[in-house]
Amino acid sequence: MRFTFFYIVMNVWILSLLCQIKDSEDLLSMSYPAEGITNTAFSKWKNAEGSRKAETAAVWKFCGNLTLFAEATGHRQTVCCYQMQGQPEAVFGKALTAGQYFTEEEKDVCLLDVETVRNLFGSEDVLGLEVKWSGKILKVAGILNENAPVCVIPAEKETVFEGIVLRRKDAGESSKQAVSLTEAVLGRAESPILDGKLYFVTACILYGVMTAEAFILMGILTRRRAAGKRRKAWGLCFFCVGIGIAVLFIGIKAADFGSDYLPAYWSDFDFFGRLFEEKTGQIRQFLAHQEFACWQKMARVWRQAIGLEIVSGGLLAIVFVQAYSASP
């Protein structure tokens, strides 16, 4: 009984994590070397075919650390500064807790994380207040729910950017195609390429496998314990196994992994080996470096979901072995 309660609580927790990962399912980020994306190139991309598949898009550049000064309080705060052009919501998603994202036409405004806002002003009611940096005056347009000191400002005209971030209209569309369409205009990207779809697919399919395992093992155990009631035992066994297979199918359907995860022709027996190598390489590179705090949160949530799913499956297997051994 205790294990059943624990297992249910763990599954509720996993489902909540999966919902958080799904929020980043449409995210696609590509990094470029120095002198990578010019203002002109980004404008050209916005008129190309690839941009029509994006809900929002932004290019970014890390400008180093700077010290902000709030004249109203006399407080200072050192932050990581990023210049962005396009729609910052492509990068930060739902991380904006107050205010609004600036547009391309706006100048002398900034987005600050909530901790920086508190340190500078002692309050979160700061929209429209000013901070100074190197003689410039910036108005606070919005507050980000980031766990690292950050300041985001509109890009200057001649800025050369280090990366592009897209939020796709249809998260189920091919990531490879989106990358190809972008590279056709901006040139070949460097690793790592962040594909939010990859993390939702892996977490969703593993959860489907672990949940299906639970029902299948339950069916096997029911069959063993129902000795003497052969017809009923087999009926319950097939019922549980059927639910397990259905749950696995639902998990695969929910993942909606699309053409990127299926071979063009079934005789390509090396496809899944190449796919595994490619995707594990992407995951390894991403986990080693996440540019923004919101991406760090996504990586942390994904790790938690995968870890809980593995623990859940392992505990279930142990309990099944013990129960099966104790059955007559």
Please give a structural write-up.
This protein is α+β, with helices and mostly antiparallel strands. The chain has helices spanning 2-22, 39-46, 89-92, 114-121, 175-186, 196-225, 230-255, 271-288, 293-326, and strands spanning 27-31, 54-70, 75-86, 96-99, 109-113, 130-133, 136-144, 150-154, 163-168, 190-195. It has 2 domains: 2-21 and 198-326, no CATH class; 33-188, no CATH class. The protein has 9 helices and 10 strands. Strands 1, 2, 3, 4, 5, 6, 7, 8, 9 and 10 form a 10-stranded mixed beta sheet that branches. The chain is globular. The protein starts with a helix and ends with a helix. 35% of the residues are buried. The model has no long low-confidence stretch (mean pLDDT 84).
How many DSSP E strands?
10
Distance between the termini: 20 Å
Low-confidence stretches: none
- One letter per element, helices H and strands E, the order comes to HEHEEHEEHEEEEHEHHHH
